[in-house]
Amino acid sequence: MRRCLRVRIKGNCSEKLISALKIASEVVPELCFFFSDINSEYELVVGKEEPLKGASGLFDIPRKTAYVVELDGKYRLSRAILHEIGHMFGLSHCKNRNCVMNELSCLDDSYPELCHACRSTLREEIARSI
Ligand SMILES: [Zn+2]
Ligand SMILES: [Zn+2]
């Protein structure tokens, strides 16, 4: 079995969310998402309510929990998930307009991409956590 970082999902197991998680784990294969009550250090809470006024997501480093609004669009929810997971592992905002760590990433509805620098930092951090 490949080693992966277990992320527990709290939220409605909707079709939209499942396809967003599938795309997120295509982009970062080290991530494994679970709806079940597995023992996981990392949590992703997906809901319809805005966790912060005007924000589509936020992360809570001490709790290792990322909060994401269930955004509409083909790829926006996976972009938001990957963005908050990136913050969870210490990534900052990226100047590259095509990278999911760009500040305006969630306004975009294109397939989520991580620039080379963000991808390698995220992989290093995940490898350290597994
Ligand atoms: Zn951000
Ligand atoms: Zn980047």
What portion of the residues fall into strands of 2 or more residues?
15-25%
What is the count of β-strands? 5
Helix content: 25-40%
Specify the CATH class: Alpha Beta
Total of domains:
1
CATH topology value: Collagenase (Catalytic Domain)
The ordered H/E elements are EHEEEEHH
> Which kinds of small molecule does this entry bind, naming each only once?
zinc ion
Give unreliable regions as ranges: none
Q: How would you write the strand order of the largest sheet?
A: 2-1-3-5-4
- SS-derived structural category: alpha/beta
Compute the separation of the termini in Å. Answer: 13 Å
Which architecture would the CATH scheme give at its second level?
Answer: 3-Layer(aba) Sandwich
Structural Rg: 13 Å
CATH superfamily: Collagenase (Catalytic Domain)
Number of helices, where a helix is a run of at least 4 consecutive DSSP H or I residues: 3
Shape: globular
State mean pLDDT (0 to 100 scale): 90
Question: Strand count, sense and closure of the main sheet?
Answer: 5 strands, mixed
Give me some keywords for this one:
130 residues, Collagenase (Catalytic Domain), globular, binds zinc ion
Fold and architecture overview:
With 130 residues, this protein is an alpha/beta fold. The model has no long low-confidence stretch (mean pLDDT 90). It is built from three helices and five strands, in the order βαββββαα. Strands 2-1-3-5-4 form a five-stranded mixed β-sheet. Strand 4 (57-60) and strand 5 form a beta hairpin. The protein has a single domain (5-129), classed as 3-Layer(aba) Sandwich (Collagenase (Catalytic Domain)). The protein binds zinc ion (ZN) (2 copies). The site of one zinc ion has 3 residues, from helix 2.
